[in-house]
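Sequence in, structure out. Go.
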Amino acid sequence: MIYHLFMRLLLPIFEDLFAVICSQNQDKNGNPLDADLKYKLDRYDVQMKKASK
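Output:
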């Protein structure tokens, strides 16, 4: 039951949070300011999507 709640509630919140962080991590030309941060957030996003399947 708690696992289901986690998947339905917290995963979308994390996805939105990661999207905001990635958008703030860009310069005026759209290039990432911190490439390692972008890579880590993308990797976490993929892992969470795999976990939700």
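Check: The mean pLDDT is 85. Residues 2-52 form one domain.
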